């Protein structure tokens, strides 16, 4: 009788916990980018944030959505990709606007200097996605160019997926590519620490946030029966995070190179 009496409480409580976990999965990945967005907006300086982070996450989440068409998985994971894509587009828009504004200020100063010296000074020219210049890839002068690139990639990848959707090998490979791309976001920081034999300039709190987020995400994958690709790459992310924490411990306890260096700008990653 007592167990039956508690049933009315446990069922909605379990449902509430499930909703909370799903909400954390959908929106938790974008949380680290909120203070980054506000800081760029406040300082009007985007030098500390690499837009290649946006590129990697856009590719990973577009591929994950395409993977869903071949093999359905948890809806929160699908919505997480949608939210992350929108977030990365917002980050790109802000970074592009700030960079272009700074370039315009530079041009004004250059022209002013040229007038004073009566000399010819070259200024940076506008760069466009439609120029198809590999040297300027992902360094364009307009947010519309980034949108065109994302749409072009989505169209090509979507068409290939449409033609190969009946191939189990293609679908499984697509899933591994999607989550493996995102799982590699911590590797540049790991490599940089190893190359410099130091972790100076790297925030330990940031890495702890990565580790806690990736651990929660991996546990969510395992408990909810997500496709194998998610669980394997989630475990890989946790291992990379632990390796970076291990570097922080070793290099702090046994410093080999006292010269300080800045943290890798592309080391920001999703939870």
From TrEMBL:
Its main location: membrane. One of its GO terms (biological process) is phospholipid translocation. Pfam families: PQ-loop (PF04193). InterPro entries: PQ-loop_rpt, SLC66/Scramblase_ANY1. GO terms for cellular component: cytosol; endosome; membrane; trans-Golgi network. The chain crosses the membrane at residues 16-37, 49-71, 77-95, 143-162. It is found in: Membrane. It is a multi-pass membrane protein. Keywords: Membrane, Repeat, Transmembrane, Transmembrane helix. PANTHER family: PQ-LOOP REPEAT-CONTAINING PROTEIN 1-LIKE PROTEIN, SOLUTE CARRIER FAMILY 66 MEMBER 2. This is Solute carrier family 66 member 2.
């Amino acid at each position: 009788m007592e167990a039956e009496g508690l049933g009315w409480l446990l069922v909605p409580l379990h449902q509430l916990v499930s909703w909370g976990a799903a909400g954390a999965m959908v929106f938790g990945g974008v949380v680290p980018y909120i203070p980054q967005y506000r800081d760029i907006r406040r300082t009007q300086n985007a030098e500390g944030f690499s837009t290649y982070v946006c590129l990697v996450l856009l590719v990973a989440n577009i591929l994950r959505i395409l993977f869903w068409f071949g093999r359905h998985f948890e809806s929160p994971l699908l919505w997480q990709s949608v939210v992350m894509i929108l977030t990365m587009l917002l980050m790109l828009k802000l970074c592009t606007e700030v960079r272009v504004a700074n370039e315009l200020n530079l041009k004004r100063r250059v022209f002013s200097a040229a007038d004073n010296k009566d000399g010819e000074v070259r200024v940076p020219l506008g760069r466009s996605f439609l120029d198809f210049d590999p040297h300027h890839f992902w360094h364009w002068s307009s947010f519309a160019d980034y949108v065109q690139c994302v749409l072009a990639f989505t169209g090509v990848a979507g068409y290939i997926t449409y033609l190969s959707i009946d191939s189990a090998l293609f679908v499984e490979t697509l899933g591994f590519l999607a989550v493996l791309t995102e799982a590699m976001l911590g590797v540049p920081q790991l490599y940089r620490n190893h190359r410099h034999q130091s972790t100076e300039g790297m925030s330990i709190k940031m890495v702890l946030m990565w580790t806690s987020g990736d651990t929660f995400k991996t546990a969510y994958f395992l408990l909810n029966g997500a496709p194998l690709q998610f669980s394997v790459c989630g475990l890989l992310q946790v291992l990379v995070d632990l390796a970076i924490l291990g570097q922080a411990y070793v290099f702090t306890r046994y410093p080999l190179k006292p010269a300080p260096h800045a943290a890798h700008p592309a080391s920001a990653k999703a939870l």
